[in-house]
Specification:
It is a single chain. It is built from 17 helices and 16 strands. The protein folds into two domains: about 5-230 and about 445-455, Rossmann fold; about 230-440, Rossmann fold. It has helices at about 25-35, 70-90, 100-120, 140-145, 160-165, 170-175, 190-205, 230-240, 240-255, 270-285, 305-325, 345-355, 370-375, 395, 410-420, 425-440, 445-455, and strands at about 5-10, 40-45, 55-60, 60-70, 125-130, 150-155, 185, 205-210, 210-215, 220-225, 260-265, 295-300, 335-340, 355-360, 385-390, 400-405. Strand 11 (about 260-265), helix 10 and strand 12 (about 295-300) form a beta-alpha-beta unit. A ten-stranded mixed sheet has the order 3-4-2-1-5-6-7-10-9-8, with helices on both faces. A six-stranded parallel sheet has the order 13-12-11-14-15-16, with helices on both faces. The model has no long low-confidence stretch (mean pLDDT about 95). About 50% of the residues are buried. It is of the alpha/beta class. Bound molecules: adenosine-5'-diphosphate-glucose. Adenosine-5'-diphosphate-glucose binds near residues 347 and 372.
């Protein structure tokens, strides 16, 4: 059996106790155990000059291999091109995307460094699986160094429409490098179609057979593989003692009111300002409901050294303060705004205590919070998922969720009202449809879809 080598910006080491970890890390670690492979990436540490020294670790049957980067690498590659150029552009925010040659140069340099460093670790029959937008050119860098192995790539964020991508000075080159891969995976058909559109109309790629594009003698198979959560583990977590305690704590503090919950990294793509405004609209339009509900927004800060993230943090604080100032009473606050992270089982209890899960990104590759919210519900008395139609998750969850347009405060207000008044039978019917999908298309299913496609490629 082939080995599997996973390459991503950051590497997640299994915890010896098997403690709380993200679903993606768990799925990739399971894949690595099955294929006896290794996981390679940046350690998260910086060093004065790049040495290429690899730090190997073996934990719970998984081998990880990490390298340190120079400070300039981190500035240009990670904070620069990845998070100030590609992330905003790929989330349709060309208004804040920064196009600087220095970033593009640093991004390529780090990808070349990764390629040089990982090259000696690759054996002839290995399969290589590259993850996400930090590493678009890595496949090409490996091919240029003579790697003939099967190489796949999965994109965790949206692929933007052709006209938006065209604003990136390196758009054509970047898209061309994707043809170094044998298989490229996306969460939804929409993201896949945007890629195809650019490749065909801007680069002249030809669709050789359904799902296979050819350009300059190289073929790439495009697959849609929506990621899921580790559903079984999440359901277990939601039944744990910690989850019960946190459920109780929330119910007690709700004091008979309905709780609406939002859980997101503090990121402008998650639509948090629009969410607060939609909720404010609801408070304006329904004075009788005011003291019957409250919104708990949990948003741990991320990417704090990037200015756009500092701005969103400041403006959300101001907005929460303004709305609370305008509507709060001595015994009720409309928004509880919390900036910290919580362990998975505590989060599961919070989700379960919420009558509404408010998941309203302006654009999101998938969105796992929507799936976690569903998995944590009480089957006999489930809450309602309000989901942005612009999240990748909407493609799988449109039947059971209430879909909303996060740009419309009025629509958001109507949807909140609808969810609060929804009869129990309808909530159960909707939840069952959602849970069927969340249980079936879990993270292991996602991983299998992708590795099957990669294995099917002729070596
Ligand atoms: P993210 O943008 O990080 O992921 P998402 O899919 O929602 O977004 O995952 C966030 C994860 O962080 C969830 O598992 C959630 O439980 C956890 N989390 C958030 N706030 C937390 C808190 N306060 N405490 C503890 N945990 C918290 C990117 C893409 C997504 C895509 C995923 C996977 O942007 O679109 O779904 O990768 O491909």
């Amino acid at each position: 059996m082939s080995r599997l080598i996973i390459i991503s910006n950051r590497v997640s080491t299994p915890s010896p106790s098997g403690g709380a970890q993200g679903g993606l890390a768990v799925a990739l670690q399971a894949a690595l155990r099955e294929y006896r492979g290794l996981w390679f990436g940046w350690s998260g540490e910086t060093t004065e000059t790049f040495t290429g020294h690899i730090n190997f670790q073996r934990e719970a049957g998984v081998t990880t291999a990490t390298v340190d980067l120079e400070e300039q690498d981190v500035d240009e590659y990670y904070n620069g091109y990845a998070n100030r150029t590609l992330w905003p552009l790929f989330h349709y925010r060309i208004d804040i995307a920064e196009y600087e040659r220095g970033f593009a140069g640093g991004y390529q340099r780090v990808n070349d460094r990764f390629a040089d460093t990982v090259l000696p670790l690759i054996e002839p029959d290995d399969m290589v699986w590259v993850q996400d937008y930090h590493m678009f050119p890595l496949g090409e860098a490996l091919r240029g160094r003579g790697v003939k192995n099967r190489i796949g790539f999965f994109l965790h964020i949206p692929w933007p429409p052709r006209r938006l991508l065209a604003t990136l000075p390196e758009a054509a080159e970047l898209t061309r490098t994707m043809f170094a891969y044998d298989v490229v995976g996306f969460h939804t058909d929409e993201w896949l179609e945007s890629f195809r559109d650019f490749a065909v109309h801007e680069l002249g790629a030809v669709e050789e057979q359904p799902g296979v594009l050819r350009l300059d003698g190289r073929c790439v198979r495009l697959v849609t593989a929506p990621i899921g959560i580790d559903t079984a583990a999440f359901v277990d977590a939601s039944r744990s003692t910690q989850a019960r305690l946190s459920y109780r704590r929330m119910r007690d503090s709700a004091d008979g009111r309905d709780m609406i919950v939002g859980v997101d990294r503090l990121d402008y793509s998650k639509g948090l300002e629009e969410r607060f405004l939609g909720y404010e609209r609801f408070l304006q339009e329904h004075p009788e409901e005011r003291k019957e509900v409250f919104l708990l927004q949990i948003a741990p800060p991320s990417r704090g050294s990037v200015e756009s993230y500092q701005r969103i943090r400041t403006s959300l604080e101001a907005l929460a303060g303004r709305i609370n100032g305008a509507y709060a009473d001595v015994d009720w606050v409309p928004i509880r705004y919390v900036n910290q992270g919580y362990p998975r089982d505590v989060l599961a209890g919070i989700y379960r205590a919420a009558r509404i899960g408010l998941v309203t990104p302006l654009r999101d590759g998938m969105n796992l919070v929507a799936k976690e919210y569903v998995a944590a519900q009480d089957p006999e008395d489930p809450g309602v998922l309000l989901l942005s139609r612009f999240a990748g998750a909407a493609a799988q969850m449109e039947v059971g969720a209430v879909l909303v347009n996060p740009y419309s405060a009025e629509e958001m207000s109507d949807a909140i009202m609808l969810a609060l008044k929804m009869p129990r039978e309808e909530r159960i019917t909707r939840w069952r449809a959602l849970m069927d999908n969340v249980a079936k298309e879990d993270v292991l299913w996602w991983r299998q879809c992708f590795t099957d496609a990669l294995e099917a490629v002729e070596a």
